[in-house]
């Protein structure tokens, strides 16, 4: 399978960093709301620490931050949201873009982390929506923002029916209309042409036989900015739930477009390093083969 990519060496945050980042997503940007949130801050921090314990490792970052949010009793989201705007796209394609910003600080340096989330829905597709995210960091005191990386993928509605109501639209759109690229390769590995889970994935029916499955085809972070990798995935999960109301499973295949030999590692060794990174972000291995590069599939479930 063609894997999502994250070049270079990852610099994942520790569990305390996870809590700090999750809380930063939930702090209000309005003074009145901030006062109310501060009143609950001690309890929320304690609850966040409990949620981040190793025995809770199957919970995704998005689930953790959502639970913290619910416990804060705040009526509004805490991220500084941009306004939904229709942007030009391919003819017949509906495209919606939204920008999310959040304060960032580390080792005495401060700035704003920016996530630009774009969703495209071609008119001739019933079950498929494309997602494109670009990440930036705007350091305080600097005139221009710095490009951090991007994420590209698709969201599949496995329950959407063809116009005549006779069959599931995704089976036709992915398997029967010569849909090219990573999405078809990955789905062909997981599902039969009638939509059942293949035998090697049967133990994960609860995650794979859901209505919505998102596939990450590419996740790239600039090598010198690897420390933003976890924050970028948190922002991705957050935006998926906020902008399109996603509830389901996100799947990806860890790997790199760069030759691992140039990094002094085998392809499999490099892949296992990425597996460890994604596990720290809430993903878990759905399928793998010992010493076989490119065989690993990981997933995380997002719930409302």
**N-to-C SSE string, H for helix and E for strand:** HHHEEEEEEHHHEHEHEE
Shape: globular
What structural category characterises the helix and strand content?
Answer: alpha+beta
State the distance separating the first and last CA atoms.
Answer: 30 Å
Main pleated sheet? 10 strands, mixed
The amount of beta strand, in percent, is 25-35%
* Radius of gyration computed on alpha carbons: 20 Å
Q: How many domain modules?
A: 1
Helix content: 25-40%
As residue ranges, the low-confidence spans are 6-89
* DSSP E strands, number: 10
| Mean pLDDT metric | 75
Please tally the helical runs, counting DSSP H or I stretches of 4 or more residues. Answer: 8
Distinctive features:
8 helices, alpha+beta, 10-stranded mixed sheet, globular, 304 residues
Explain this structure to me?
The chain is of the alpha+beta class and 304 residues long. It has helices at residues 15-26, 31-51, 61-72, 169-176, 182-190, 205-208, 229-244, 267-280; strands at 80-81, 85-86, 93-106, 109-122, 128-139, 146-157, 212-221, 248-252, 284-287, 297-302. The protein has one domain (15-302). Strands 1, 2, 3, 4, 5, 6, 7, 8, 9 and 10 form a ten-stranded mixed beta sheet that branches. Strand 7, helix 7 (229-244) and strand 8 form a beta-alpha-beta unit. The chain is globular and about 60 Å long.
Concise structural overview:
Helices cover 32% and strands 27% of the residues.
Outline the fold blueprint:
Blueprint: H1 15-26, H2 31-51, H3 61-72, E1 80-81, E2 85-86, E3 93-106, E4 109-122, E5 128-139, E6 146-157, H4 169-176, H5 182-190, H6 205-208, E7 212-221, H7 229-244, E8 248-252, H8 267-280, E9 284-287, E10 297-302
Parallel strand pairs: 7-8
Antiparallel strand pairs: 1-3, 2-3, 3-4, 4-5, 5-6, 6-7, 8-10, 9-10
Helix pairs in contact: 1-2, 1-3, 1-7, 2-3
């Amino acid at each position: 399978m063609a894997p999502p990519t994250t070049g270079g060496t990852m610099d994942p945050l520790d569990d305390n960093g996870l809590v700090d980042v999750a809380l930063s997503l939930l702090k209000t940007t309005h003074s009145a709301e901030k006062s109310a949130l501060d009143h609950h801050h001690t309890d929320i921090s304690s609850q966040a620490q409990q949620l981040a314990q190793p025995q809770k490792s199957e919970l995704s970052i998005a689930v953790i931050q959502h639970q913290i949010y619910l416990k804060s009793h705040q009526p509004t989201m805490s991220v500084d949201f941009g306004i939904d705007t229709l942007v030009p796209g391919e003819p017949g394609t509906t495209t919606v873009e939204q920008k999310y910003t959040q304060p960032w600080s580390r080792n005495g340096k401060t700035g704003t982390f920016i996530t630009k989330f774009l969703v495209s829905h071609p008119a001739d597709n019933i079950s498929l929506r494309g997602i494109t995210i670009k990440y930036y960091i705007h350091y305080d005191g600097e005139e221009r923002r710095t490009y951090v990386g991007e994420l590209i993928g698709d969201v599949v509605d496995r329950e959407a029916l063809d116009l005549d109501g006779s069959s599931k639209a995704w089976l036709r759109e992915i398997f029967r209309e010569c849909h090219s690229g990573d999405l078809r390769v990955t789905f062909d590995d997981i599902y039969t042409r009638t939509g059942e889970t293949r035998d090697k994935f049967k133990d994960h029916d609860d995650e794979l036989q859901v209505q919505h499955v998102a596939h990450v085809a590419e996740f790239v972070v600039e090598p010198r900015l690897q420390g933003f990798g976890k924050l970028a995935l948190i922002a991705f999960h957050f935006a998926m739930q906020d902008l399109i109301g996603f509830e389901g499973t996100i799947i990806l295949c860890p790997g790199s477009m760069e030759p691992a030999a140039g990094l002094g590692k085998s392809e499999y060794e490099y892949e296992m390093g990425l597996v460890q990174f994604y596990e720290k972000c809430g993903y878990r291995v759905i399928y793998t083969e010992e010493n076989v590069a490119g065989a690993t599939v990981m997933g995380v479930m997002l719930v409302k």
